[in-house]
Specification:
Blueprint (H helix, E strand, L loop, with lengths): L3 E2 L5 E2 L21 E3 L2 E2 H12 L12 H8 L4 H8 L2 H12 L6 H5 L5 H13 L7 H15 L4 H21 L6 H23 L9 H9 L9 H9 L22 H13 L5 H13 L3 H5 L6 E4 L2 E5 L4 E3 L4 H10 L27 H9 L5 H15 L2 H8 L3 H10 L7 H6 L6
Antiparallel strand pairs: 1-2, 3-4, 5-6, 6-7
Helix pairs in contact: 1-3, 7-8, 7-9, 8-9, 12-13, 13-15, 13-17, 17-19, 18-19
């Protein structure tokens, strides 16, 4: 503990600066900031958790011990004590301790939805008290059930449930990896548009059995562009023989490519590399966007195992090969490894994510990262496109694709749009550009 200052203004411990303070906990014997006389914050946290999680016999149930260990061993116990002051948190912990709330995902699902419930669920899962599950898949199932119950027409409700279950939910269940945020949102939008389409048919005095090309064209012509998301429902209905196979849903035209100017990219890159006032995670994420053309979804999913420290610098695993990071960006990544955000609470003390989120076991969401970057003027889509365009101008497209983890077709497309003359690559490599 360094509660005092030396004559020269440097931090001093009690042995070096005899302040009239006793910072030794009378319970554990450790020198630490005290919550109250002779009791440190950690001992107070242990006491409160023992009381809240106590079962009928007064002891913490074995199945809740991992949760207790995770909370009481957090880096900043004062944050844990503050968290326990929340009445909703106390009620949930007491319910789990007494058994009034069974230790299951279903029991938590049956509670009123709240951030507190989800935070505690993630803590339990990360600590091993609950089995892991596909969060987005579970959220989609609950959302679909609620959405279906809001449909008055029984036939329409039946169609929506079948579509939402056998088309989208089955795809999620068959996936070898957890449902992504984009897939989750896309499935919700697809079902929502299907509901709107069936209601629109009803207004026209028609049902899905009456659906034909003219009705589909009228639906698409008289409304917002989001109506094109009916495509999934129409083709599913074709496979189920509800509508004629001759119906065609015109493809939406692709939006104009978002592209940042090279001058703006270089200026922003200079800021993230040199501005110490910016949060460290924003600087590293910004560098990954502006230097290596990474999307927010890929950045958020990086783990500490995707970075390795070598005598000659730092390497990162983004594609097929390990990529050597240039200085000074390399130093920023090394710093982030030792000072990651959201690591001081029980939620992430053992997190493997390079960009840990607020909730236990989860990484930062792409949406949160995009917003954090946008407040500093970094637009991820425009920035990553310009970075990729610049990379393929200096390095052969297949090498760029392998190094930064994008499809060869994507890299080739950027090269074509940049007007790259493939014959100049050897000359540029000889000049000692990044491609060397």
């Amino acid at each position: 503990m360094v509660p005092g200052l030396t004559a020269s203004g440097l931090p001093a411990c009690l042995r070096c600066d005899p302040l009239p303070l006793d910072l030794t906990c009378g319970r554990c014997g450790e020198e630490a900031w005290l919550f109250k006389k002779a009791c440190c914050w950690r001992c107070e946290l242990i006491d409160q958790m023992s009381q809240l999680l106590a079962g009928p016999d007064g002891a913490i149930p074995d199945e809740l011990q991992p949760l207790n260990d995770a909370v009481t061993s957090m880096a900043r116990p004062n944050s844990g004590v503050t968290w326990l002051r929340n009445p909703a948190v106390r009620t949930l912990l007491q319910g789990l301790g007494t058994g009034q709330i069974p230790l299951t995902h279903k029991a938590l699902d049956d509670l009123p939805s709240s951030r507190t419930v989800e935070y505690l669920r993630d803590l339990l899962t990360a600590a091993g008290g609950l089995p892991g599950r596909d969060r987005h898949q579970a959220d989609y199932e609950m959302w679909l059930d609620t959405k279906a119950r809001s449909i008055v027409d029984e036939e329409q409700r039946s169609l929506v449930v079948r579509f939402g279950t056998w088309h989208h939910l089955r795809k999620m269940r068959r996936s070898k990896s957890d449902t992504t945020t984009n897939a989750f949102l896309s499935a919700k939008q697809s079902v929502t548009v299907a509901i709107d389409f069936l209601a629109w048919l009803d207004v026209q005095g028609a049902t899905l059995d009456d659906c034909n090309q003219a009705l589909v064209d009228a639906w698409l012509a008289d409304g917002p562009t989001t109506r094109h998301h009916v495509e999934g429902f129409i083709y599913w209905a074709m496979n189920q023989r509800y509508v004629p196979r001759s119906i065609v849903v015109p493809r939406r035209s692709h939006r104009t490519e978002v592209l940042q100017s090279e001058e703006e990219r270089v200026d922003l890159l200079g800021q993230v590399l040199t501005d110490d006032e910016l949060p460290l995670e924003v600087r590293v994420a910004g560098g990954l966007v502006l230097l290596l053309g990474q999307p927010a979804s890929r950045i958020c999913a990086l783990t500490t195992d995707d970075v390795r420290l070598l005598e000659g610098g730092t390497e990162m695993h983004l594609g097929e090969d390990w990529l050597h990071l240039p200085d000074p960006f390399s130093a920023l990544v090394q710093h982030l490894l030792t000072d990651r955000p959201n690591m001081s609470t029980a939620a992430n003390k053992d997190s493997v994510w390079l960009f840990p989120g607020i909730l236990a076991g989860r990484h930062m969401s792409p949406g949160s990262l995009n917003r954090a970057l946008a407040t500093r003027g970094i637009k991820t889509l425009a920035g990553r496109n310009r970075a990729r365009r610049q990379l393929v101008s200096e390095i052969p497209a297949p090498i760029v694709a392998r190094a930064i983890g994008i499809a060869p077709e994507t890299a080739t497309k950027h090269a074509a749009l940049a007007g790259v003359d493939y014959g100049t690559y050897p000359e540029r490599i000889m000049r000692g550009t990044l491609g060397s």
